[in-house]
Amino acid sequence: MPIGVYVCHCGLNIAGVLNMEDLKSFAEKLPDVAVARDLQFSCSDIGQEQIQKDIAELKLDRVVVAACSPRLHEPTFRRAIAKAGLNPYMLEMANIREQCSWVHMEQPAMATEKAKDLIAMAVAKAALLKPLEPESIPVSKNVLVVGGGVAGIAAALDLGDCGLHVFLVERRPTIGGYMALLTDVFPTNDCSICVLGPKMSEVYNHPDITLITYAEVLGVEGSVGNFTVSGVRKARYVDEKLCKGCISECAGVCPVEVPSEYDFAIGKRKAIYIPYPQAVPLVACIDPKACIGCARCVEACPTQAVKLDQEPQDFKLNVGAIIVATGWQPFDATRKEEYGFGRYRDVITTLQMERMLNASGPTKGEVVRPSTGKIAESIAFLQCVGSRDSSVGNLYCSRICCMASLKNAQLVKEKYPHTDITIYYIDIRACGEGYEEFYVRAQKLGINFVRSRVSCIEEVEGELFLIFEDTQTGEMKRVKHDLAVLSVGLEPDSKADVLGNLLGLSRRPDGFFEIAHPKMRPVEAHIDGVFIAGCASGPKEIPISIAQGSAAAAKAVKLLHKGVLELEPTSAYVDPEKCIKCKLCVDLCPKKAIAVKSPAYVDEAACKGCGSCAAACPVDAINMRFFSDEQIMAQVRAATEVKREFPLIVAFLCNWCSYGAADLAGTARIQYPTNARNIRVMCSARVDPSFILEALRRGADGVLIAGCRIGECHYRDGNYQALQRVNVLKGVLEKIGLDPGRVKIVWCAASEGEIYAKDLRDFIGELKAMGPIGTELKKERAEEKNGETALP
Amino acid sequence: MKLAYYPGCVSQSTGKEMDASTRAVSTALGIELEELEDWNCCGATHVSNELVATGLAARNMAQTDLPIMTACSICYSNLRAAAQRLEETETLEKVNAVLDRKYSSARVRHALDVILEGLNEGDERIVVPLNGLLVAPYYGCLLTRPAGLYSPEFPTILEKLIKRLQAEPVDFRLKTFCCGGPIFMPKEKAADDIAFKILTEAKKAGAEVIVTVCPLCHLMLDAKQKVLEQKHGVRIGIPVLYVTQLAGIALGLGPEELGLFMNSVSPMAMMEKVYAMLSE
Q: Which fold has domain A1-132?
């Protein structure tokens, strides 16, 4: 296996510090090296042509480029060798610029020694490289959108218009979500259903959207590009095709009346009902819990659409991507017992207020006291009910409630100018285009604002009293109001748990679905091919939910439009002979890519190559196609072949953050000692304890593992897994008599070059204090003269 | 059933009737009480120093393996809070370092909860059913804290017990208001105002008697009632009973056993009414 080694000058960036001649002649003598050259600029056309020429003439079958960071030019050199006919994965880079010449400018001799190790490590790994073929898989061009609220509607319409086929699955009998139930919406106070209604019908009539309402998703199998989704359409007891939506005929004869969930229980509906007049599809539905089976609706229906013997129907869909737009649920106001919701009739929630203000709502737009049915003359809005409140476990701001109350207060004031309205608030949060102006408008309309978190509401002889401290005057007050509106916050929809579990979505501490990156990947889930839009990932107002729906649609289009998906061939694979089916890997895998049938099986389309499973497998049955056990071991051995300095540190850096931090330290020319020999891994969780033990056994004085900051792992929780393994290993080291401090795990973000350098300096200092590896064993032996040798 | 009994300091002073009625009711319900050996302060006297307070409580709780019952909400809250803090290894180690008998774990119960558990619906031991006597359930603050067992904002367990004794709980909206006790030394007027408000509101709600679960609440509402009447020139005259006393009356126990003569506002008129209803 002839290997070509190219040591790059990078002008003076490398050659200004390191001794190029020395490095070249060192490389020449390494095993399997057919040619070693130094190039002025290896990435230039001349440099690349030299490499290609050597591949052709010297029949090189693998190439090592000792130059800058692979994060910069690995793609360049992969393309170059591929052009010369080599498999692009037969390349290894030694990072002698960012992690050597740039950070050891004042120690050229030691830096050259370190560069020798880095080159030897790269050559050792290169010898074990295997050609890898990126696989292409055909993908389905269908997309499942779960949830027919405004975010799901936006996603479905954009996808349909792009020519992908959409299955929109909605739990309720109608799409529209909460937005369809609202009265006018901020900041322009336009009628909610008037702007949403046309979109709802558009969904219904779109040739590329299949609408599946009153249905639940019950199973998801497969992975990105090819999910198989199963579910059930609940029985409406009404034939969707026959029903004309006239509703007065059937509901007119129905003898059962129950509180309507679409009016949040201030209005009523019949056992056979249409949620609201603009429902889509406009088809009746029988509530089986309320229906007494009298069948009067069957007789009344002019089209014989009522079918009391209708059965639930299973469905199965093949889709390439899934958009989760499951939305939110209102905070249960009875949990704030001090406000008496559920005990005092005149204490209502924002959503009940929305329904009252709605012209097609239960009071036809009149704002009345539920206890008397009379127009409310004095109304209190209480903000932050169930938000920003640790006593109910919700620390977050629900974002929309300030604006919603400002809006409802304005609507009431416009309709009944003499109504006395007070908003009790902690802070008014009106940040959005036109929102502050909206707040000022409310003030000008004569709405009162009292800065206070109301302590309790009491009802005395049918009258409501709010008790609170006015924090602007410092006074305790007790004020009477006719109606108290609790501005309930937004909570994650608990009914979305089933889907979340099926897809393996993680939840943040606030309970909402977690997105892949809190800033950079706002609509992607951790699972490939799954996107999250709208309030499923946290409280959002309407325009942002729509933007997210469209963004998720764009992501799905990007993923599926070609009809094929190219897979990085860096995945894990299982040796079926060795697998003992312990399922340890299944639980660890952040991508849910492993299933244990018999034996374990890796779905290579879903695997992202973090390697945690390979590190965890108790029988080494899992290995990685890239960053394999053998390759990493070869790097460890090469790093410890000649101990060129004390303390010698073998460092494992995760590709995403800490390797980036080390590169940044280079770009920023942060100077630190030369002791570390860095090995790049995809994730800190890839570090198998056997790598660490091998490094120490071969004379490394310490091993450093650096991962992303806790909570920022690019694979979900790999750094936690690494930490756990290191902690266990420290215990083992202690048992065999080695100082557990020789293994250190640190966290640095890709922006934290300074922190990486500091961590390394600290570690070097600690190791100096410990002395060379084995010092502690000698000491122990000297202390216990009869003691046996404890060296492994 | 056998329980360890922690009387608390009040049982030796202003709350002798609480102690007497607790013991009497327990006997009547067949609950054997084993008084904690060499008990000390629950920690209430050292609330400003959490570690000392926890240590004092731990020393009490380490005296027994049985569940510990107390009738005083202050003791109850302090012991429970300490038990929660002692779940942390660091605190546990610090405390156990100075204890002879080491603390490991404890279950603390309030007499209220023990009585409710011991009485069935329509229990035949209720020989003097309270027949619709209008009772204001007054919780104060400490029964429900630390949070977890009962809602601190709207608890209902007292109402449940009152109904089980066949009395009628009134809708008493100040049931979780502060009694004023904690501030009656530094801010006497404010404390008096609060206590007066609670008493008058209870009367307004139609209550014939107030039931309490805490000796400090009892002190504020019962012992201070006469002073408050003089101050405001209003006659209040509403008896304030410990929950153990109320339960004892229903169980047919006599005024002596329940320490009813020790209450400042005499409940005897109320007792007479209850017995009169019985003979009707």
A: Rossmann fold (3.40.50)
Look at B151 and A337 and tell me if their CB atoms are within 8 Å: yes
Q: From B174, which residue of chain A is nearest by alpha-carbon distance?
A: A458
Helix boundaries (H) for A127-191: 150-161
C-beta of residue A689 within 8 angstroms of C-beta of residue A727: no
A459 interfacial to chain B (CB closer than 8 Å): yes
Q: What percent of chain A has pLDDT over 90?
A: 86
> Using CA atoms, how far apart are residues A207 and A164, in angstroms rounded to an integer?
10
Residue with tokens 């897994």: A721
Among 3.40.50, 1.10.10, 3.40.1130, 3.30.230, name the CATH number for the domain at A627-792.
Answer: 3.40.50
Q: What is the spatial distance between Cα A136 and Cα A274, in angstroms, rounded to a whole number?
A: 47
For residue A754, the SS3 value is helix
Q: What Rg do the C-alpha atoms of chain B give, in angstroms? A: 19
| Residues A608/A680, Cβ–Cβ less than 8 Å | no
% pLDDT > 70, chain A: 99
Taking the CA atoms of residue A262, residue A266, residue A267 and residue A273 in that order, the dihedral angle to the nearest 10 degrees is 30
pLDDT at A786: 59
Burial track A290-306 (b if 16+ CB lie within 10 A, e otherwise): bbeeeebbbebbeeebb
- Per domain, the residue ranges of chain A are 1-132, 136-233+312-327+493-567, 235-311, 330-491, 570-613, 627-792
Q: How far is CA B269 from the centre of its chain?
A: 22
The number of C-alpha atoms within 13 Å of A438 and in the hemisphere containing its C-beta is 23
Question: CA of A459: which chain B residue's CA is closest?
Answer: B173
Q: What is the pLDDT of residue A461?
A: 87
φ/ψ (deg, to 5) at A506: -100, 160
Tracing tokens 């300095």 back to the chain, one arrives at A645
A690: buried, middle or exposed (CB in 10 Å: 19+, 13-18, 0-12)? middle
Q: How many CB pairs under 8 A join A and B?
A: 11
**In sequence order, what are the residues at sequence separation of 6 or more whose Cβ sits closer than 8 angstroms to the Cβ of residue A364?**
none
ipTM value, please give it: 0.72
**Structure tokens given for B95:** 């405390």
Three-state secondary structure call for residue A483: strand
Q: In B, which residues are within 8 Å of A336 by CB distance?
A: 153
Q: Which residues of chain B have pLDDT under 50?
A: none
pLDDT of residue B147: 81
Assign A785 a pLDDT band (cuts: 50, 70, 90): low
Tell me if A460 and B173 make a contact (CB, 8 A cut-off).
Answer: yes
Helix, strand and coil in chain B, % to nearest 5: 50, 10, 45
CA–CA distance, A177 with A328 (Å, rounded to integer): 9
What fold characterizes domain B123-279?
Answer: Rossmann fold (3.40.50)
Q: Angle CA(A18)–CA(A22)–CA(A26) in degrees, nearest 5?
A: 120
How far is the alpha carbon of A725 from chain B, nearest alpha carbon, in Å?
Answer: 24
Q: What is the pLDDT of residue A792?
A: 45
**Residue A622, pLDDT above cutoff 50:** yes
Q: Which CATH number fits domain A136-233+312-327+493-567: 3.20.20.70, 3.50.50.60, 1.10.565.10, 3.40.50.970?
A: 3.50.50.60
CA distance A367 to A416: 9
Token code pair at residue A47: 């440099």
Looking at beta carbons, which pairs linking B47-56 to residues 24 or more positions away fall under 8 Å?
B47/B78, B50/B85, B51/B91, B51/B94, B51/B95, B53/B78, B53/B82, B54/B81, B54/B82, B54/B85, B54/B86, B54/B91, B54/B95, B55/B94, B55/B95, B55/B98, B55/B99, B56/B82
Task: For residue B154, give how far its alpha carbon lies from the nearest alpha carbon of chain A (Å).
Answer: 6
What is the tens place of the pLDDT at every residue in A414-453?
Answer: 999 999 999 999 999 999 999 999 999 999 999 999 999 9
